Amino acid sequence: MTSDEGRWKEKPPPARAWKGRARTRQGRSAEQDRAAGSHELRYVDLGNGRRACASIDLKVYAKTRRIRAYIRWSDNGKSPAIYIGEVDRDTRAENLTVAWQAAKDKGLLATPPSSPVEASWASTPAVRQVMKGNKSRDTGPERRLRSAVHALGLRYRVARRPVAELRRTADLVFTKAKVAVFVDGCYWHGCPEAEHYRPSRKNSNFWHKKITTNQQRDQETNRLLCEAGWTVIRVWEHEDASTAAMHIAEVIREASSNQQMLPSQTQ
Q: String of b and e for 196-227 (b: at least 16 CB within 10 Å)?
């Protein structure tokens, strides 16, 4: 796996060659997926039809000043590891890729199942895994907006139907003011700003149709809620949460004020 066994004789390898920067579990998993080729290519065979998702660990040993790669996974509370070999590339990404290829060459990886991917609408196993990991609620933009709105003293319900009999779920619902807030993902809802929405080049017809359908449903949702007396606010995921929260607060104040005037106007 190494091309120059003595390249780091005088000093330890640079941190960029082995040390990870991803701070979240999702980020670390994505890094391993890229190096392995896809999430489906990261599994080891445990026997009896069982598989486990594995990761590559890179460690530097002070005595040898070399980077050693291990493949590791979890199984019933244990974390077995197998030594793969030494790697000597300049970046962590390259070393992870080399180590995954070595694990494959050594026959340590399970054969990925073909049927789920073939039956899927995703163009590649990597795309399929991203779609599986896509959240329908409690996304980062949603949490940031909720925090900003809460800081303004506003209270709301999360992931509720504004109208019970209407199968439409808003991300934030202000019941008394009858204001429904939706946080729209730039890709899934077709953000009009080019830097936030880049059409897929693979399986483009499928994705164009899917996103167009989402946009049509959004328009229908707006219309149905407005007809039911609700005010609809849509916030793009790229928008500043504090600015969006201020706008929501203004709309709620105006909506509440209008509702207080209704009884006197009808007398």
A: ebeeeeeeeeebeeebeebeeebeebbebbee
Q: Give the CA angle between residues 66, 53, 84 to the nearest 5°.
A: 25
Which DSSP letter does residue 89 get?
Answer: -
Say what the pLDDT of residue 115 is: 39
Sign for the pseudo-dihedral over CA of 260, 261, 262, 263: positive
Q: Which residues contact 25 (CB under 8 A, 6 or more apart)?
A: none
187-221 residue pLDDT tens = 889 998 877 777 766 677 888 888 899 999 999 99
66 with 89: CB under 8 angstroms?
Answer: no
Q: Which of 214, 212, 189 is closest to 139 using CA atoms?
A: 189
Does this model's pTM top 0.85? no
In angstroms and rounded to an integer, the radius of gyration of the C-alpha atoms of the chain is: 25
- What phi, psi does 10 have (nearest 5°)? -85, -30
Distances (CA, A) of 143 to 132, 171, 235: 20, 10, 13
Which amino acid belongs to residue 113? P
Give pLDDT tens digits for 60-102.
877 767 899 999 999 888 888 999 998 888 899 999 999 999 9
Query: Taking the mean position of all CA atoms in its chain, how far away is CA 56?
Result: 21
Q: What is the pLDDT of residues 239-252, one digit of tens each?
A: 999 999 999 999 99
Bridge partners, 67 (sequence order): 60, 87
| Rounded Cα distance, 126 and 146, in Å | 31
